[in-house]
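Hi L., both proteins are below.
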Amino acid sequence: FSSQVATVTEYGAFIKIPGCRRQGLVHRTHMSSCRVDKPSEIVDVGDKVWVKLIGKEMKDDKLKLSLSMKVVNQGTGKDLDPNNVSLDQDERKKRMFRDYTSQKITLEAVLNTVCKKCGCKGHFAKECFVQPGGTKYSLIPEEEEEEVATAGCERGKKTSLSEDPSRKRKK
């Protein structure tokens, strides 16, 4: 239906619904098929726009109406999405997104294994590339393991890492 913009906020625009005292919200994601950062760049108070009712919600005994401008041709008022296909796709995209940043990937099980073929740490026998009599490859040890190994060797020499200026510690 054709309606008029009542107010513009940073998250969308409230639209006066004709023949009704209520207003509906056109969220900035439903203003255009392109990204809208500032709704005030798209509409101003008093502008005539074509909108489509896409949802209603009862919250705290108040009816909240969701409207969309991007599924309606703003020149003719023709519904561009009569079967609500694009709205269903948008909802599916929102539901499918999951945040996996809190889950860390650990490779301890693989790193702590010893190859039965070559005897090196960090890979399985089926992933081993060593040929009979060939070069053996293993993982580079972590800094902590390297420091422990070098400290153990240097105790016999009675020197430490902090006393030797030629060795620098990496953090």
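That was the first. Here is the second:
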Amino acid sequence: MASYRIRQYREQDYDAVRTLFARGILEHAPAGYRHILRSARAQLGLLILFAAVRAAAGYWVLGLAAVALALAATWPVVRSFSTSYVQEALCTDLCDISTSYLRAPDSCFWVAEAGGSVVGMVAVAPAQDPAERGVALELKRMSVSKDYRGQGISKALCGEVLHFARARGYGAVVLSTSMVQVAAQRLYEGQGFKKVGTFSPSLLGSLLCFQIFHYRCDLPGGTA
């Protein structure tokens, strides 16, 4: 097991952090694609497409070809969820990390370093939901390099956020993660987070049965 240390973000970490975040998000696109294809709605739609083309053309091969084309067209649409999310993050808070997290109140950004390289990251900021403002902080941008998973880095980064929020008197930490990030869900639930809601990121996401899970961890002794 490689040794690592958790420290606060520095300006020289900028490129490594942005690359780590983008890779971590984009690697979930195939899982999202498989999840959507396994949904009853998608399978019914493909069946109807096959039947309609076969009935119109009179050849089952053309029906199969239509299904294949539909599958091929669905992949870039599903991947766009990840790419759009990455682009938005890189153009907003991850564009100027120091301003977003180190100079803002009740915010911080940590990295995990191993062998002189950044292999993990996490941020915390005031909750975006107005109902949670002043009550909860939000865990954001959690990511660990694939080569360093299973070594307790994610748990340690999560612990930094919980300690930070508790030290400032907040009553809870909230976060959002996609339905296909199963390992992340297990990590958060193991740290005391409970699922408190689900939502779709867009109308298209709703049609494709893609959901985001909202989690909350109540902190003992919080007074904010």
